[in-house]
Amino acid sequence: MARLSRWPRRAQRFRSVAWWLIALLIVAGCAPTNLPEARPTPNLDPISAERRAMSFTTDDGVILAGELTLPRQPALPPLAVIIHHSGPVDRDAYGYLAELLVARGYAVFRFDKRGTGASGGAYGCCEAADALAAYRAAVAQPGIDQRRVFIVAQSIGTRYVAASFAEYVAATPPCGVALLSNLLGPDEIVAITAPVDVIVADSEPDLQRIGPDAVAAHNARWPDSARLYIAAGAEHTLFDIREGPIDWSNPNWVQRYHRGAMASLLEWLDRTPC
């Protein structure tokens, strides 16, 4: 009888362990499965004349790091300054774009947001001001054609540029502003008093406002100054999803950039006069 009396206690312990395992499985099933975004290293050495490491100081005294990549030709190339999309991203998030631009004869400036890469500070502060500081540092560099400077802004970066455009102009008036994954509507885009190239994905829920309507508003204020390209089969950041969703934890995501969108950008840069 003593031996049999232990079974209820064993059964109770078994049930407790079973419920604990079930709870663990439920929690694991509900936990996020997304891995951090991979940062493929761009292959810039074969196509660049110089990869100039830079640092610059923000308005609140934080030192950020970046890189100016100069092409082999021409001797004084035009400059493209990349203003980031949202998130704690470093310069290599735009390595694929740097490869395309440098191969086309453009100098490219990319930087690490605060708290990422080689930059100081903690991520989550002052992104608009940091973007402007990056632009000021880039346009002050020797070895570029300062009469041909372009801004290439993406997503939230488009808002940063529009909100402070007069200050960008005060540093160096840009020849044009490429608005990748544009977020600006008709009332906001007219703050950019320079030619604009709006490139948006066809999957955008607000496509009419940030695409055709925004371009029409800019052209109404500044005639023949805005162009629109709608990337078919792209997600927000202009990567091609026609063959399925992007696995951002796989470094091969860098090969999925939307070919049509990037070709359109390069063509617009080449033909925009200053």
Overview of the molecule:
Strands 1-2-4-3-5-6-7-8 form an 8-stranded mixed sheet, sandwiched between helices. Helix 7 links the parallel strand 7 (196-201) and strand 8. It is α/β, with parallel strands linked by helices. The model is unreliable at 1-34 (pLDDT under 50). The protein is 36% helix and 19% strand.
Brief summary of the model shown:
An 8-stranded mixed beta sheet has the order 1-2-4-3-5-6-7-8, with helices on both faces. It is 36% helix and 19% strand.
How many β-strands, per DSSP?
A: 8
Give the biggest beta sheet.
Answer: 8 strands, mixed
Helicity level:
25-40%
Question: Averaged pLDDT, please?
Answer: 90
Key words describing this protein structure:
single chain; 274 residues; alpha/beta; 8-stranded mixed sheet; 8 helices
Helix-strand blueprint:
Layout: H1 2-30, E1 48-57, E2 63-71, E3 79-83, H2 95-103, E4 107-111, H3 127-139, E5 149-154, H4 156-163, H5 165-171, E6 176-180, H6 186-189, E7 196-201, H7 207-221, E8 226-231, H8 259-271
Parallel strand pairs: 3-4, 3-5, 5-6, 6-7, 7-8
Antiparallel strand pairs: 1-2, 2-4
